[in-house]
Amino acid sequence: MSRIVYVNGEYLPEEEATVSVFDRGFLFADGVYEVTSVLGGKLIDFDGHFQRLKRSLAELDMPAPAAMDDLLEIHRELVARNEIEDGLVYLQVTRGAPADRDFAYPGEDVAPTLVLFTQSKPGLADSPAARAGIKVISIDDIRWGRRDIKTVQLLYPSMGKMMAKKAGADDAWMVEDGFVTEGTSNNAYIVKGKKIITRNLGNEILHGITRAAVLRFAREAQMEVEERPFTIEEAKGADEAFFTSASAFVMPVVSIDGVMLGDGTPGQLTKRLREIYLDESRKTAS
Ligand code: PDD
């Protein structure tokens, strides 16, 4: 069965789904995106992703696609048509395809491009990586200054993943002025004693939807949370570490730059938080 993809109002087999070579997403990375996970055929935290998409569009003065009100329905339709049990829905909006390449934004006559597709990932919530924990390296954060907007400018995060692979690790945490900003595609946390520490929100990091939910659940479970920057050195001396994202949920980190954390296995608090997150978010999945 060919995957069904949504492009500008149409559900098409992936071979027939195309966008223009003049699309500003392609030429200027002038686009924003969201990734929503699917567990048991249901969307996890759709509303959070929808609200952040609206914010990303507003921050860039990008027109919302006409189908904005129908986004939940389109997500559900794609999950059903592609028979996704566990996996994710990727959504991208760009500033559309004007007649020529021009740095200036096009006028209102150019409609935004809206594309959605699914990726099937059977057993997404039960990944071997979550059982063993993953290794990260630290790299300089050389991205632009508006990381709170979820744009498709992902070249440096891709380079970071490759640097990690080359170093025999799984992912990279980015460091600016000595402080960890975030992972290549996730938010970073350390645990000291029973306290969860993660960078406070600002333009330096993406405001993770999983982050917001995890911190809420942690506080509800009477866990102590401190939102402040931490250095990579502090992270190497932490009792536990983990990261969060829509596709990895709560993912244990067991080594940083080759320095093993604790006994080199996922920490107790991290494992508990992963369980709580998966249980609670399945309850409200739509
Ligand atoms: N990435 N920080 C960055 C730089 C990210 O790219 C992501 C998500 C996050 C976590 O945000 P959320 O919890 O809302 O997924 C933090 C997605 C999953 C991706 O690019 O595939």
Report the count of strand segments: 15
CATH superfamily of the largest domain: D-amino Acid Aminotransferase, subunit A, domain 2
The portion of residues forming beta strands comes to 25-35%
Rounded mean pLDDT is: 97
Query: Mind describing the biggest β-sheet?
Result: 9 strands, mixed
Give the H and E element order. Answer: EEHEEHHEEHEHEEEEHEHEEEH
Total domains: 2
Number of helices: 8
> What's the Cα radius of gyration?
19 Å
Q: What is the approximate shape?
A: globular
Q: Helix fraction?
A: 25-40%
The third-level CATH topology of the largest domain is D-amino Acid Aminotransferase, Chain A, domain 2
Structural class designation: alpha+beta
Return the CATH class of the largest domain.
Alpha Beta
Low-confidence stretches: none
End-to-end separation? 25 Å
Ions, cofactors and other ligands present here are: N-(5'-phosphopyridoxyl)-D-alanine
Q: Judging by the overall fold, what is the CATH architecture of the largest domain? A: Alpha-Beta Barrel
